Amino acid sequence: MRNVANIYSEAARAGRKPISFEVFPPKGDLTLETAREMAGHLAQVHPDFISVTYSAGGGGNKQATAAIASMIQTEFSVPTVAHLTCAGMTEADYAHAVAELHELGVHNVLALRGDLPEGEGERAAYAPFTHAYNLCERLVTDGFCVGGAAYPEGHVTCFDDVANIAHLKQKQDAGASFFITQLFFDNDCFYRFREAAQATGITTPISCGIMPFLSKQQIQRMVFLCGASLPAPIIKLLARWEHDPASLRQAGIEYACNQLVDLAKQGVDGLHVYTMNHPDIARAAVCALRESGQV
Ligand code: FAD
Q1: Is the pTM value of this prediction over 0.90?
Q2: How far is residue 67's CA from residue 26's CA, in Å, rounded to a whole number?
Q3: For a surface tag, which of 184, 211, 236, 270 has the fewest beta carbons within 10 Å of its beta carbon?
Q4: CB 120: neighbour CB atoms within 10 A?
């Protein structure tokens, strides 16, 4: 299956921007079957790749990540990226994860630290995989094509813009060959971040992660979790459609589509849509980009 780094370099040569989708393993017993159905819908719009999230704790289904990534690339011929988190990972856990990825033929991995146990703060980051770049380095050595997370507005636990970029550079130096950003609602934040990243010597392609807001509760949760700023137009849309959930959802999808088109016009390296397992979001994003002539 295709190496995601090659997808970026071939797209850049052709003047294209790769479009990718994020999905998460559906919860419950029918995980693979539900994922297969969803992947079928997503494959119809021909994304460059699909990434599958990993949940180390709580209600998530971490066993399913590699299996779903493998199923999507085998059955739908869409390249995949399996997310993998390393908070609390032991050498034995690492060996197990790598063996499974190799066995299932999954070659592209998004190396992440994952969130630390609540209440323990940054103290709970354990060696040997203290930060994502440690995992990145190991996966590259073990032959994987590795990506990392980027934070246009900084990570919620990083209060210094210079350190934020330095930590990204560390992932590049560890061998990351693509980055995907945390969601953001204000494109200007991304343009400032891109400028600072380039000035620091970051040359690795960065895909912009865009998530439509679908409800007031969801956006409040996301803003709290990842610290994304809420521009005034979104606050106005939330107020305008407060009592009309269907219109609010539609407004959220349209806002995200406009963001994607603007980013494409500004020549970003790639566009990544947080689909939240809703194929209609993926379709709307791709239609908007193709209609704008930007991809
Ligand atoms: P790191 O790069 O290790 O950063 C963590 C913190 O440490 C940051 O504050 C950073 O600035 C700081 N830091 C980094 N390097 C150093 C250093 N050398 N010295 C001091 N401080 C440092 N979570 C999941 O559980 N599953 C997923 O599937 C998942 N997918 C994601 C996909 C994307 C695109 C993004 C943006 C995030 C995703 N996350 C996922 C969330 C992510 O795991 C959390 O944001 C996590 O808290 C940080 O992960 P990281 O890989 O950025 O870690």
Answers
A1: yes
A2: 12
A3: 236
A4: 10
